[in-house]
Amino acid sequence: MPCVSIEKETIITTPEGVREMSHRILKASTDILTINYESLEGELLPKLQEFQRENNSNSNSSTNGDMSFENELGLRLFLDVVNFCYQDPYSGREYIYTDKTGQPIRRTYGLTTAMKESGINWGDISEVSKLAPENWAKTIQLDKNDGFYLGEERGKRIKGFATQLLDRGFYNVSEYIYFYQHDSAKILSDFAQNGFFNDDFLKRAQLAVRDLDTTLKKRFNEQLFGTEKLTVMADYRLPQLMYNFGTIILSNSLREKLENKKIIMSGSREELALRAATITVGEELSKLMNITEADVDLLLWMLAVKMGKSNELFIPHMLVPTDKY
What we know:
Blueprint: H1 15-27, E1 33-35, H2 37-54, H3 69-82, E2 96-98, E3 104-106, H4 107-116, H5 125-129, H6 133-139, H7 151-167, H8 173-179, H9 184-193, H10 203-220, H11 237-244, E4 248-250, H12 252-259, H13 269-289, H14 293-309
Antiparallel strand pairs: 1-4, 2-3
Helix pairs in contact: 1-13, 2-13, 3-7, 3-10, 9-10, 11-14, 13-14
């Protein structure tokens, strides 16, 4: 049986490293899935182009302008440290936050709102480094009697990352960005190596770079340099969209696991193949649409969310016990 390994001795720190790894994984995973380029160009591409025309492709999950610039920068960074939007793989329960008006908000938007309404100044790294477990649980409304996968652990990661930044002499995120001269490659490399964004596909690390860049552009008329080199951010939403369009052709075994909502283990050949295919499909869509892979990622994610809400994605997304996305 073909297999693939990732060289753990060498930490992947660049988008190009992610692409090269993905190509290797795909070559060794033809018994698990294949990419149907005819479907990519004939079905997924037209749908994505139509969606792009109907929507503002520059919209994203950035918070409203009623926060201070530094607070929003910090919120975006620490949100991406944990990216706590996942469906619990064991209970099937989704993360839901009830906002101050009593409105239940799911997944990513729920966590963003929870952090925004917390009263924590995310722009003050010293304040974030003092985050206590009980305050984190209260902030995101964790129920200890109905535990959520890695709920408490992700609060510890935020505190740990803030403490590391403080120990390195950074008191706010602007100082961190200026230290790295607004260079997205340097920031991404630091994220990849600091121990709080661990993932060979650099999903959360690249998302953090993109979100910082977007906030800088919207709030301060600045930007990070080199973000056009980012890949799509391989998670669980994007491959679901792709295999529902027939762009990713699944083996019978993998399709059966997905349809029956069986857990796919983190680091398994199936998970790696799905994420690798997402990277490669994103590359191709970027070339065909003449936009960056990061922009393709945003369109794919927004389309997947929309189609998921309207029950148009008949094959479920993968359930993986992971903290990588």
